[in-house]
Design brief:
By secondary structure, the protein is mainly alpha-helical. The protein is built from 5 helices and no strands. The chain is globular. The relative contact order is 0.16. The mean pLDDT is 92.
Amino acid sequence: MDNPIVSSLEVRLAARIASERGARGWPVAELAARSGVSRAMVAKIEKGTVKPTAALVGKLSAAFGLTLSHLFARMEE
């Protein structure tokens, strides 16, 4: 059974990652190179087709120069 709270969080996380990348003018390949996460995985995360691990989200947030807590705080904005 799907949890609507978890699903909402995943959707907002996907949107925030895409937004952070777009704000920097980075293509998916740039975020992949800066984070060490594959282009395919970045694309899947942004589309919401995979549930990223905390480690993956940590790598992406570090590439943006953000802590995990700052990335999550921006999701609430």
